[in-house]
Design goal:
single chain
Length: about 130
């Protein structure tokens, strides 16, 4: 197994995150156009909202992990757990609240989050595999 310098891995992961956001936005745009043609525009709006929530969650998680990495204490690592739980509760609240407004909006948000996470997983695996980590 080849050892890759940490800076190279950080650069590859940054590129993977940018690819994730672009691919997810493209999928959301296509889904929005399709949902307009089949007369379910709220699903398309939800796709964009789910992609936005996924990207925001990734950004918040990244900043919290970076802070904990520099602090290095056990309390900082516990902070990651509590912030993750808070973000999960927040996303769940958004989905449930939007279901009270329109069920198709909630379905779109949920599908947008799932698509974002799936694309993130695939791009991360591809980036790590191409860098020789696996």
């Amino acid at each position: 197994m080849a050892v890759v310098p940490p800076n190279a891995n950080a650069k590859l992961l940054g590129q993977a995150v940018r690819k994730t956001v672009l691919i997810s936005l493209t999928v959301s745009m296509v889904g929005f156009i399709i949902s307009i043609f089949v007369d379910y525009a709220f699903v398309g709006v939800g796709l964009f909202a789910g992609t936005f929530i996924g990207a925001l969650n990734l950004r918040l998680m990244d900043s919290k992990v970076a802070n904990a990495k520099y602090e290095g204490s056990k309390m900082a690592k516990k902070g990651i757990v509590f912030h993750s739980i808070g973000r999960l509760i927040g996303a769940t609240g958004i989905i449930v609240g939007s279901a009270l407004i329109n069920i198709f909006l909630a379905i779109g948000i949920l599908v947008g989050l799932v698509v974002f996470q799936a694309v993130l997983l695939l791009t991360m695996v591809k980036s790590l595999n191409s860098s020789g980590v696996f």
